Amino acid sequence: MMLRVQDLHFTYNSHPLLAGISFALERGQLLAILGPNGVGKTTLLKCINAIHKPTRGAVLVEERNILSLSATTIARDLAYVSQKNEASRLTVFDAVLMGRTPHIRWRMGTKDLNMTEAVLRSLGLATMGMRYVDSLSGGELQKVCIARALVQEPSLLLLDEPTSALDLKNQVEIMGLIRRVIDEHHIAAVMTMHDLNMALRHADQSIFLKNGVIHAAAAPDEVTPAMIEQVYGLPVRIHHLDGQPVVLPKT
Amino acid sequence: MHAEHGHAPEEYFRYLGWKNAIIILCCLGLGAVLIFSLGLGSARIPAVDVLASLFGAAPDQRTNAIVCGIRLPQALSAMVAGGGLAIAGAVMQAVLRNPLGSPFTLGIAHAAAFGAACSVMLGSGLTGSGRNAVTIINPYTTTAAALAASLAASAVIVAISRLRGTRPETMILAGVALGALCTAATMFLQFFASDVQLAAMVFWTFGDTARASWNELGIMAAVTLFCFLFFWANSWNYNAIDAGDETARGLGVRVERVRMGGMLLASLVTAVLIACLGIIGFVGLVIPHMFRRLIGADHRFLLPASLVGGALLLLLADTAARLVLMPHLVPVSVLTAFLGAPAFLWLIIRGQRP
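ok -> structure tokens follow
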């Protein structure tokens, strides 16, 4: 197993936020973490990356306990794309090159520069390498952040709402990009998401969080209206359009 | 993703070369200004004689005394202080992710003034008449008191932010509060001071590059150099923090530790410089912003550029301060503020990001 989360608990200010989360993920798979606002989706993602320390339970990445690893070792294996990304006055090339930070000791070498160029090219960003990050649009910035995560050479990609701030075209592009990266590099990815339709369309597996536990785990075609209603407290219908499940709120 | 499939574009190396060229240009400018600065003043000395004196072949005793004995330590003090304050500002702005990070916004300068005022009040600041209207007779006690006070202020800021979690806002707010407290305490002392003591207190706050002896210059240079090397080695960490705390953590950067280390050393270099020379404003705030606009926020280049640029600016300001009202000396802090305040306003009006 690529990733194994075992009985994970997380308490925030003596308020139990996650209370016994367990799941596992293989290489090549994309897992969506779903659930209402404030349920602890981002917290779960940060626990996997050891940005937060779980109060109980374990996160195993290729059977190694994440808490026994140093921050740099974790960063060589797990890449985290935050929901909030500040745009500083760096060129796109430097912003992506930054992803090599966990791999270097003093300075960037030829290998780091070459890998940055290769990733930029494969994501279609090569032409904007010399632009400053603070002049990019939201969609472009998100692509740069994914590129930065890729030069980390991770085996697991963690994405916090990768499409939440993007327009429809960019949403589709970014999700396509994530899928392509998972398949090409044979890595696994976990993402949190609010858009159920986007999740059902692209994820291999979805887990629904409610009251700190996994209320349901399902492949896209196993998700039922009852499941969604219980988690979000909103009655919905699921229609199939061109073979794709589409969630619609009942009005 | 395989390294052998890509090669970094020529364009990128040209871009790095351009940044290096700007830094080298600033270095050359600094050298030139230094030579001219040493020649300018009440006694004008041609550049050739300045160079000869610097290499130990002064045409006469008097020239040597003026160049190496009087003007050189002052010029070097200005360069070290300018460079040190500029890198301290650059690092504070980076680790606090706040464009207003500088020795002033964090109350360190106010604490130094308070320390000096205390020392004057407690008797070390008896005055005599010298080159300036008021001279502090026991400068070492005053310097030590200023250093202790500013280090204490930095320690309090760091301690508070440790207590409440090292959020950048916490540090800035703690610094602002502490600065106000120190200002009030200084005013309290000034209110009860005799007119001579009051003059000594106020005079101390005028940053003066002529104040440092060779010994103090050596200490300032060593601290500045050490801090610069430490900051420079952390360039990628600062770049990562610029991209957001969470992104930096995802890259394996121990954000709290980097932030704490950066703040401690930036405070230290500031405290040492201010204690030795008095308060010199705006270099730490303005220089990093100027170079961030000019060559970008990549700290691999921003830090050396700020070091050289800060040195150049303060040397220019110091030279101008010696010349504008000759034979009187204008405190260099007045000139840096005259220069800094409009630049600061421009930054505010123009906005942080285009």
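The mean pLDDT of chain A is 89.
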